Amino acid sequence: MLSKKIETALNDQIAKEAYASNYYLAMASWCEKSGLRGTASFMYEQSEEELEHMMKLLRYVNSTGGHGLVAEIPQPPNTFKSISHVIELALEHELAVTKSINKLVELCFNEKDYSSFNFLQWYVTEQHEEEHLFNSILDLIKITGTDGRGVYFIDNEIGKFREKEGAEKS
């Protein structure tokens, strides 16, 4: 059974995951409209993944005697400066989510809710992977540059990142 304190914190995280999904959806739409098909595809997948993270949390809260809540989600920005701006903002967002997950893990540990603590370990690992992914993309952007054909190359490579990630996990 969840304490009210942990239930509230988990519901806050549900809202953050929902916002992340919308944020990445806005990025995907901007990329698609800007002709960045590879990055758009990648960001659409990111949006879906964040929605899955939200659902996993919501179902966990419900399965442990709490009530998973669907919160109002603020509208994310809809315009971005460049492909590198999109990735930089995505990394900033992932770093903020990591801090939030870490605080949640700490709360569960301090409250001796070891079931929730254990459940959240998946999110700790996931955040490490997300930060690594976006840092890898930023490394590619730094190496390639964003002049002329560089954007075309970067966009194509970003579109392949999910394929590469799946191959590495196999």
Describe it.
The structure is a single chain. The protein is an all-alpha fold. It has one domain (4-169): Ferritin (Up-down Bundle), CATH 1.20.1260.10. It is built from five helices and no strands. It has helices at 4-33, 37-63, 83-110, 114-144, 149-169. It is elongated and about 55 Å long.
Mean pLDDT: 94
CATH superfamily grouping: Ferritin, core subunit, four-helix bundle
Supply the helix-strand structural class.
mainly alpha
Helix content: over 70%
Major beta sheet, specifics?
none
Name given to the CATH architecture: Up-down Bundle
Order of helices and strands: HHHHH
Q: Find the CATH topology.
A: Ferritin
What overall form do the CA principal axes indicate?
A: elongated
Question: How many H/I helices?
Answer: 5
What is the CATH domain class?
Answer: Mainly Alpha
Tally of extended strands? 0
Outline the secondary-structure elements.
Elements: H1 4-33, H2 37-63, H3 83-110, H4 114-144, H5 149-169
Helix pairs in contact: 1-2, 1-3, 2-5, 3-4, 4-5
Descriptive labels:
81% helix
Short description:
With 170 residues, this protein is mostly helical. It is built from five helices and no strands.
